[in-house]
Amino acid sequence: MLLIVGTTPETDFPLIEGEACLEGAGLTVAGRGIPVNRGTAALLAAAAATLAHYSQPPPSACLAHDTGMGGGSRLLYEHLAHVLPNRKAGVLCFHYLQPDVDWHNRVLFAIQGMDPRPLLIADAGYMYVAKMSGQAGEYDLFTPDAGELAFLADETAPHPFYTRGFILHENTKVPDLILRAYAHRNASRYLLIKGKTDYLADSRGILAAVAEPLIEALEPIGGTGDTLTGIAAALVTMGLDLEAAALLAARVNRRAGLLAAPTPATQVAEIIACIPQALAALQGPAISKR
Amino acid sequence: MGPPLEIQSGCDLVIEFPIIEKLQVLRTLNTVHLTPLEVVPVSSPLLTPVDLFQVKDFGRYLMVRAANMKLTVDKATRIIVNVSGGGCPDVPYLAQELVGRPLDQAPRPRDLGHTLCGYALELAFAEMERQCS
């Protein structure tokens, strides 16, 4: 089972937990409709589309309203710290939460009480706080973009906003940033670095790269990183090993982008709609249920 | 500025002031209903916010990146067509409020945002205004 944790900017939205169902372009969680624009909704929709394509059970979601004040994120942290030790989940995927080191550590402690221990994926704010806590090595997959990789590589930065210029500079090479992130123990077991070329890496360096198809117009589109994380989370939930899931996700995300014929003004929902067709074109290896 | 390692707790911003003025500074903050999480002496260097911008021209569209935030505008209409990047929970909210509006009619990220990602988006917004002027 895949459990996705994140926030939504929708107002009047209490903490909810339930199955995420995608019907056409509409996403519902525990019966509540959620617009699929970007953020956790895009990640959820991409995961749901992927699982539905393989006739797998939908992902579960744990969501709360948060527009940056942190209240919804704290509700989620507290809820997770309480319920996770008694939960079964093959994969936990954490997303847009307000970084809070103390609460992060309480949730991680709760996860350490889960049997069996789930695979841990973190993106966005939760990846930031996982790094800031010094516990990045507890995670199986981070999905940073180039700027966020520079943040992971900067051992002093608590947030990408403070990444030092000599590390953030465009000329700093991805392999160097990867090695630096691992040298300072600020990376997860695997990194899936999204960008002009997507890289899969671990502590040994780059394992594989996916550069085709190259669609320049995807870079400005909000949510394309979220969809990549969602597809990878779904594939690993279905039993693919992490390396295969990450690489297939990168290919599917790019193919879906190509099929959407995007411009920089395209919205991510148009790309999510193309995920089933992209999956059909790029059938992965046989999968077993995690 | 950003805090040194020993007092980092999350999405942090630091105001630096001479410690001898502590009471006056606290009184001033109190008048605008701001309460610091901590007031501490520091000896190690504070972190500096990112000041590098990357600008990418897509022909009809222009993208500006500041730190982890990207803002894209239709050059002809100055309408914000996409907001990308970031990880704090105000990012989807800011994107929802900004996308589809012309630069000069859109709310400022500094007015709606609450986090460092919101701050970075404000920097991208200001740089975009400069680029489009």
UniProtKB/TrEMBL annotation, chain A:
Keywords: Kinase, Transferase. SUPFAM superfamilies: Ribokinase-like. GO terms for molecular function: hydro-lyase activity; kinase activity. Gene3D superfamilies: 3.40.1190.20. InterPro entries: CARKD, Ribokinase-like. It comes from the Bacteria. Residues 118-266 form the YjeF C-terminal domain. It holds the Pfam family Carb_kinase. This is Sugar kinase. It comes from Desulfobacca acetoxidans.
